[in-house]
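Lab notebook, bench 4. The sequencing result for the construct came back, and we need a structural model before the next group meeting so we can plan mutations. Quick request posted to the team channel:

Model the 3D structure of this chain.
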Amino acid sequence: MSSRPEPGAFRRLLAPLLGVLLLATPALAQVKPAPAAAELTSEQKLVLGERMYRQGILPSGEPMSSIVSGDVQVAGTSFSCVSCHLRGGLGSWEGGIVTLPTNAARLSIPRYWKFPNLSLEERKELKLQNPPARPAYTDATLAHLIRTGRDPGGTDMHPVMPRYYLSDPDMAILLHYLANLSARHSPGVIGDTLHFATVITPEVSVDDQQAMLVPINNYVKRHNQFSAGFGNRMYLGVGGNEMSGAYRKMALSVWRLQGAPDTWGRQLEAFLAKDPVFAMLGGISYGDWKPVHDFCERSQLPCLFPITDLPAVSDTDWYTQYFSKGYYQEGQAAARYLNGLDNPAAARKVLQLVQDTPQGRALAQGFREAWAELGQPPIKELPLPREGALDASGLAAILDQEKPSTVLLWTGDSIYPALDALLRKGPTPVNGFLSARLLGAQVTSLPEQVRAHVWITYPYREPHLEPKFSAYADTLLAGLTKRHPETRVSTRTYAMVQVLRQALMDMDRHFYRDNLLDRIGMQRDQILPDYLRLSFGPGQRYASKGCYIMQVGPGATPVLVRKSEWVIH
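Done. Here's the predicted structure in token form:
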């Protein structure tokens, strides 16, 4: 529900886009007769209202029907409420257009042009007398706005806001949902303190645990010192409360998991029942994060940037914000780079050799799925044993049998002694791919004779630039990694802290879990250690969206040489 309409230029820009969206609208489920609203329980109304708000689908199963910009017809499945008002209902801003909140707490009070976030009690205390831009909504005036685009103060909303054709029963269901949307603070908001947790899985070394915990605990300690020192003074000024979210106290619990991954969900449920928290900060695991990911989805609990190279890869899940897709993303980058080469011979016949580990399988899956999306034919995959190395004769035999133009070697540095086989395939050597993340510190130990024929997927910023950004981090938050050596664990923790700090500022006092993720989705690109950049957007769950392709340079002390731009997944 946007305000301050602008001339028809935006309509002319929007209409072609909406045409594309309409063509792309997915087929809907078979339409079923909708029950009468009076027959529904409150919970059933919430489920149906949520589907209207988020997906633009009526209780009958049909798409909601609306117009924008005066006369452009658009289906709700292409342009739903959540597209602009976001999941928590607190609104958004983009391209100079401000979308106002549509959640229960904000609709039920008047809206003012000056200091709109102040409560009525605060306005009275500060003796602010300016009249409201609009009165509080009633069911009747809110229904009128949804259908006509005019608020109870007589202001016409921006023409881009859809005007929906809803029957009275369907309107009642949507209004019931809005009356409950972000109506009460989420669990973990207790008094003046926001409660958080972080998760550690059992295989993580003590050093890596400390590399994450020391920065987080230092940040919480410093945050609480600032909260005590500045919070009260901020409340004294007009509008001071608007930043109060950044000055709430913080408390951090450490949830240490034990045993097999299939027991982690039950352990996490017990932790959360005993210690309700607002969100999870970071977390660290060497293995598959999916058990924790699934718990967060079930519990509707945000998890911000866990340190894992094996995230759950999903286009629909909501509650975990990752740095990247990890190993899967390196496989994607290899596919896109190979597909885009000027030399089509390299992509003529591709073979994947996949070590039977979670890392190898994730690399192979990323390549396979991206390769298919690019319209390329299926490739052959051969498994490598989980333990032991493929020797030179074994690799040569595979190459003789399969005759690939490019071989993806999703294994560690144990393959190095066998790589001579790539060069012994006649006048045209076989190209190879390796993963820098799998190779770790051994990446520059690649045998020199094969370096010109092996590409390396490299998911971080260029190595020679990393010290600059690490130094920037140390300066900006001096002491964050105090008395602890800097590693990728600590620098990624620092990046999580920076995103969290901005999100707390942007949340104001609207402590709803979905709103936390909405505010992160509205942040500008962040230039932080490790990654070229972290980019955000509504509903986006993977902030680093690319990977370099590198080669190891010549000489006894080689450096990585960039062979591509940032390959976007």
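Confidence is low (pLDDT under 50) at residues 1-32, 232-243.
Will bring this to the meeting.
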